[in-house]
Amino acid sequence: MDSEFDRDTAVTLRAPGVYDAELSPGWTIIHAVNGGYLLALLGRALGDALPHPDPFVVSAHYLTPSVPGPAVVRTETVRTGRTLSTGQASLFQYGEDGTEVERIRILATYGDLDALPDDVRTSAKPPAIPPREHCLGPADGEPPIPGSAAISERLDIGLDPATVGWAVGAPSGNGEMRGWFGLADGREPDPLSLLLTVDALPPTAFELGLMGWTPTVELTAHIRRRPEPGPLRVAVTTRNLAGGFLEQDAEVWDSADRLVAQSRQLNRAPRG
Q1: What is the per-residue pLDDT for 162?
Q2: What gap in Å lies between CA 248 and CA 236, rounded to an integer?
Q3: Which residue from 57, 41, 46 is spatially nearest to 89, judged by alpha carbons?
Q4: Collapsed DSSP state (helix, strand, coil) of residue 119
Q5: Per residue in 194-218, pLDDT tens?
Q6: Are 181 and 197 within 8 A, CB to CB?
Q7: Hey, what's the torsion of the CAs at 27, 104, 245, 270, to 10 degrees?
Q8: Rounded distance, CA 87 to CA 126, Å?
Q9: For residues 115 and 118, what is the distance between their CA atoms, to the nearest angstrom?
Q10: Exposed site from 80, 91, 168, 258, fewest CB < 10 Å?
Q11: In percent, how much of the chain has pLDDT > 90?
């Protein structure tokens, strides 16, 4: 495992269905660990526990904020079939009083992406994003949230200038975020890293004029194809903010213009 992503999502089998992990501080926003990183780490554990290799759908409930440090992942096989298998996994850490605290719980179905038929019928189109050299990355400005630089150093993101009005105090109000995505160390995308990708761009709340932490309550990701090597394009939209919550719908496209991942998550709106 030469990639930092692979090292930091590694799990070690302790007993049947039980894995030890170390949550890296390199994937934090403020003091909390990024939800997509957690999804990938739990996805790796389930991929080891289930008989099928690739995540097809992963649904996660974020129960309490995860922090860097030791963690335990417990997995359970729910069902296995010829083409699909389903399992669940929970990540635990120790609280200040020494008791175990559940941080995140997922239910996921795995299969074999290479065994899927080639037939594609879709009205979806890749997002129109300017060339990478005309997009903006973390080096072009200060982090939007103090303390959020750790994860940005591990990502190669180029945001569409049309979706970064928030960075200069002029949010568009459209609730859209678009950009190029890759890992900073050059690791090529795969089904596991797509679980990170769907939750890696800045929140659409920024373009709605709401800055601050936007914690995820629930996230469901669909992995549709094994991505081709090369940069990914990601588009995230929000249509409805109400009652202090908003949804974020993401699409991820690979270098061959194929829709490789989709997700929807429910977030708390920033309180600031």
Answers
A1: 95
A2: 6
A3: 46
A4: coil
A5: 999 999 999 999 999 999 889 999 9
A6: yes
A7: -30
A8: 32
A9: 9
A10: 168
A11: 86
